[in-house]
Structure formats: C-alpha cells, structure tokens
Specification:
The chain is an alpha+beta fold. It has helices at residues 30-38, 40-43, 95-104, 157-160, 197-205, 213-227, 248-257, 275-281, 310-328, and strands at 4-8, 20-27, 47-50, 56-57, 62-69, 74-78, 84-90, 129-130, 133-134, 139-146, 152-156, 177-187, 235-239, 245-247, 264-267, 270-272, 288-289, 292-294, 301-304, 337-338. 26% of the residues lie in helices and 27% in strands. Strand 6 (74-78) and strand 7 form a beta hairpin. Helix 5 (197-205) packs across helix 6. The longest helix has 19 residues, at 310-328. It binds uridine-diphosphate-2(N-acetylglucosaminyl) butyric acid.
Length: 339
C-alpha cells in the first residue's frame, strides 16, 4: 500500500478536473482500509472516499486523505425459495461489471441500470436509478466499515432510508461509514420493466421479438450512448441536478403558462418535473462557454471539454439555477457532490 503526497486527482474524477489531494492511497480489502485508517498521516486529515469519481465536482485542491476503493469480488448464494439469488459484490467493483455479471448468470433486476458510471459502493449512497428502476428495488443489504470504531456494520434496506437519489449516507450517516460490500436480491424468473417509453421505442427499432435481460440491457446502453456523453471522451458527471418535485398546484399554474411542460406524478400532491426541460427552456442546451458548457443532447448534463476548472463549472451551475428560478420559480438542487 503506497501513500502518495500532493497527488493529481485528474485520472480519478470523470469531470476531468485537475485538482490535487494532500494524500492519495488505494485499498483493495477491508484489512487494507483499516490499516490506512490507523496511519497517523491519514488520521490527521479529513477523509474523502472515491470509487469511480463519477459524481463529484472538485472545485479546489482536496486537503484530505483521498482513499480509492478497489475492493473487488462478486459471489452468489441461492435463496431457499428457488426463485431468488443473493449476489454480493465488493464495493470497489465497477457498477457496469456487476450488471454484466448478472446478465451472464441470467439474474434479473439491474439490467435497466446498465452503463451507469461509478462503483458498486457508491450506488446505495444516492440510490442510483434509470429507466424506471432504482437500486432500492433489488437492494438486500450492505456492509460498511464504521470509521470511528473500525467495526463492520450491516444495513438492511430500511436502515438505508432510500429516497430519490437519497439515502441515510447523505444525511445522518454522512461521513461516518465506508461501504465495503453490497448484496442484491435478484430474480431467476424475470419480470421485465419496459415502462419507460424510450426502452419500448428502442426495442421496437431493434426489432426485438423476445424480451430478455440482455435485450433490455442493450436497449438501455443504446439510449444512454445516444444521449449522454461518454466520460472517457468528454468530462461530465451525468445529471448535474436532481429533477425537482413541486406541489401539484404550482405545476397546474405553470402548465397554464407553459402547456408543453412535462410532469410525472409522484404522489397525489406532488409532480416531478424534468430539470432538463426547465434548463433547455432557459436557452442553456448546447451552450459552450470556453472549455465547459451544457451538453447538446441532454441539458441536465454539464460538460468539461478539457481544461475547465471546477469553479468554472460550479459558476455555470449557479447561473443555471438562477435563471430557472427566475423563469419558473423552481429552485434546482445539484445531484453531484461539489467539493
Ligand atoms: N428533457 C428536455 N430536454 C433535455 C433533457 C430532458 O426537454 O435536454 C425532458 C424531456 O421531456 C424528456 C424528459 O426530460 O422526456 C426526461 O429526460 P430523460 O429521459 O433524459 O431523463 P431525465 O429525467 O433527464 C433521469 C435521470 C438520469 C437517468 C434518466 C433515465 C435524474 C437526475 N436523472 O434523467 O440519471 O438516466 O432519467 O431514467 O433523475 C444520473 O443520475 O446521472 C442520470 C443520468
């Protein structure tokens, strides 16, 4: 285990921001993680755990010990009902590698979450979701190391307090635990989720006759590749903002003024409005401001074309928040962690 000092984080964040970390080290097991946490140099600093670095915007050098999670390994045990399989993955596995493993073993439940960037350990923190499915739908439990005690603690679904891009690890438990493994409960007999219009359209386009986990995964990959920039080519962290939920009464007033406004009911009193639409209406879609800007195919994604600073991207994000608030009276909140 080597500890680097004043190390560049450029390769470790998908926004491609060139910030430095006071200390940088990798861990590949719980034992290595415990050892690092006991190291006096590490102990003297705040901690920042990075997996794929796909949900952070670094706006300054990080005065912290940055620990890169590389705990690997996937295993499975069948449940006695013969219909479900518990799959446990090391938290440092790449999320999409886990999806590919489940497709290989014909285990259903996370095929709609294909190609989401990041690691398995980061998935529960923000309850990743796409195309009608969220992590919480198949989540069984996770193990996390409690930083204060070095003990492994187990969390079931209820204890994780999942919400839309939310969990207890963004609230009460923030900064207190490091996820070391995640267990999902997957199906051997599948119920396919094609509720999302774009999936149906793509399956029809690809002339898929028989639904399968692989067909859905391929449709999702196709949609994502056509709309979202590949972080390996253009720096980005996926959706920069959450889709806001607003009171139904406010939605109806807006609908009278902007008949085209899309909205999805989340409860009898609230409606979720796509932030991408709000941002596009304010004229931001495809805007290029020097080295950064707003993606041309999805206004919810801010991009770094190369060489932008985190502060430039942050300033753009706040300009967008302000213009959406002025036009629609809705305040967007960032989904990405701004550090
Ligand atoms: N829209 C626009 N203009 C745009 C983008 C979107 O008008 O530039 C409107 C359209 O009405 C479109 C609707 O927004 O029908 C929904 O767009 P999309 O299907 O692209 O989904 P989204 O709401 O923008 C969310 C997630 C994505 C996830 C997709 C698919 C959030 C914050 N984002 O985006 O997640 O892939 O749904 O399920 O909930 C991520 O979290 O990083 C992410 C990419």
């Amino acid at each position: 285990m080597t500890i680097q000092r004043n190390a560049s984080l450029f390769p470790y964040n998908t926004f491609g921001i060139d910030a430095k970390a006071t200390l940088l080290a990798e861990f590949t097991s719980v034992e290595e993680l415990r050892e690092l946490l006991q190291n006096p140099e590490v102990k003297a600093l705040p901690l920042l755990i990075l997996g794929g670095g796909s949900n952070v915007l670094l706006t300054q050098d990080v005065q912290a010990a940055v620990l890169l999670n590389r705990i690997k390994g996937i295993s499975q045990t069948e449940e006695t009902d013969g219909k479900h399989v518990l799959v446990t993955s090391g938290s440092g596995e790449t999320w999409h590698e886990l999806v590919l493993y489940t497709l290989e073993h014909d285990l259903g439940g996370i095929e709609n979450l294909s190609l989401i960037p990041g690691t398995v350990g980061a998935a529960p923190l923000q309850n990743i979701g796409a195309y009608g499915v969220e992590l919480k739908d198949t989540f069984h439990s996770l193990e996390a190391l409690e930083i204060a005690t070095g003990e492994l603690v187990s969390f079931n679904r209820e204890q994780c307090g999942f919400g839309y891009r939310e969990s207890v690890f963004k609230r009460e438990a923030k900064g207190k635990y490091i996820v070391t493994s995640v267990t999902l409960r997957l199906t051997k007999e599948h119920t396919f989720n094609t509720s999302y219009g774009a999936i149906q359209d793509t399956l029809a386009q690809q002339q898929v006759k028989e639904l399968s986990l692989k067909a859905i995964s391929e449709a999702v990959c196709h949609i994502r590749r056509s709309k979202l920039p590949d972080p390996a080519k253009i720096g980005n962290a996926g959706s920069f903002f959450k889709n806001p939920e607003i009171p139904l009464a406010q939605f109806e007033i807006l609908k009278a003024q902007y008949p085209g406004i899309p909205g999805y009911p989340v409860s009898p009193e609230t409606v979720k409005v796509p932030a991408g639409w709000l941002i596009e209406q304010c004229g931001w879609k495809g805007k290029v401001l020097g080295k950064h800007g707003v993606h041309k195919d999805q206004a919810l994604v801010l991009v770094n074309y190369g060489g932008a600073t985190g502060n430039e991207v942050k300033a753009l994000a706040y300009e967008i928040i302000q213009s959406v608030e002025e036009k629609f009276g809705i305040r967007l909140t960032p989904e990405v962690n701004i550090i």
